């Protein structure tokens, strides 16, 4: 199957402001892109692609004063497989973990393992270490929190979500990550796109989603405390210790968000193929098409 995804984001700055974004899909999914336009900004600004310490793709740019629109639209091919499952996967003893995974056992900005440790051991200490324990944590978080977009709060931590008993997908992920780390299992936060594949369509506006990954055996496994079910068609964007490592947008100065639209949907056009990487994709707004055309013209001039 094919999945179309993208975003349109408006940002208004009172003066020229440096900015970084974690909006580019993870490197392992780049080879599945069939068609792609962007990312592009209006007005046009140069973008530098860099790799952060967690191996995510980050775009760095300087926004001019006034409003800037960022837009991206792409289609990828996807096999439609559910998240991998292995109920026999075992937890790795801390002393045998690769050194690179040790940071994912520690407390971080939104995951206060020191304050949740006693609770975690009381709740999950008798559950067999490994997959069963992670699933028990996911079940607990899923049942503990009540979801609503109206509960979104940028500064809410895992402990606060647990005490408030509410949140959005990032809060579910933060709490599950923290509890897994308390139980000596490396866990990391992930954000990305997720279409309603194999589930009823949600009436809520499309948004980026958050889930978490836990290292068991010799690999990372995907878990989702908010939905608490294996899903198909996830498109990871970035991974980190928590959301503080991978903000969607990070400006180094004042800014105001003026527009935010995300789309993720299943495409049924089987004619799409890897040879159509520059094929036309129907766009949501005329300005994006015009901006993309100017971008290509400027790129061609630079090459010649």
UniProtKB/TrEMBL annotation:
Source organism superkingdom: Bacteria
Domain called Transglutaminase-like: residue spans: 161-227
Gene3D superfamilies in UniProt: 2.60.40.2250, 3.10.620.30
SMART domains tied to this protein: TGc (SM00460)
InterPro entries (UniProt xref): Papain-like_cys_pep_sf, Transglutaminase-like
Signal sequence interval, chain numbering: none
Listed name of the protein: Transglutaminase-like protein
Protein's organism: Sinorhizobium fredii (strain NBRC 101917 / NGR234)
């Amino acid at each position: 199957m094919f999945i179309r995804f993208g975003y349109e984001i408006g940002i208004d700055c009172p003066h020229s402001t440096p900015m970084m974004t974690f909006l580019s899909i993870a490197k392992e999914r780049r080879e599945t892109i069939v068609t792609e336009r962007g990312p592009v900004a209006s007005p046009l600004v140069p973008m530098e692609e860099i790799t952060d310490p967690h191996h995510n793709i980050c775009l760095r740019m300087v926004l001019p004063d006034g409003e800037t629109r960022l837009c991206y639209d792409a289609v990828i091919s996807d096999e439609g497989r559910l998240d991998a499952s292995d109920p026999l996967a075992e937890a790795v003893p801390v002393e045998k973990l690769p050194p690179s995974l040790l940071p994912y056992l520690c407390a971080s900005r939104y995951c206060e393992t020191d304050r949740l440790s006693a609770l975690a051991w009381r709740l999950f200490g008798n559950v067999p270490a490994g997959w069963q324990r992670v699933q028990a944590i996911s079940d607990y978080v899923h049942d503990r929190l009540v979801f609503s977009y109206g509960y979104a709060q940028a500064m809410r931590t895992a402990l606060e979500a647990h005490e408030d008993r509410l949140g959005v997908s990032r809060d579910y992920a933060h709490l599950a990550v923290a509890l897994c780390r308390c139980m000596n299992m490396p866990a990391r936060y992930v954000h990305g796109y997720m279409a309603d594949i194999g589930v009823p369509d949600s009436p809520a506006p499309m948004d980026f989603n958050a889930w978490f990954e836990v290292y068991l055996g010799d690999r990372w496994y995907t878990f989702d405390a908010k939905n608490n079910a294996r899903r198909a068609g996830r498109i990871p964007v970035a991974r980190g210790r928590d959301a503080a490592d991978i903000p969607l947008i990070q400006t180094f100065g004042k800014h105001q968000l003026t527009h935010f639209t995300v789309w993720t949907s299943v495409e049924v056009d089987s004619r799409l193929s890897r040879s159509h990487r520059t094929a036309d994709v129907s766009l949501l707004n005329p300005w994006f098409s015009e901006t993309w055309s100017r971008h290509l013209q400027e790129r061609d001039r630079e090459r010649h």
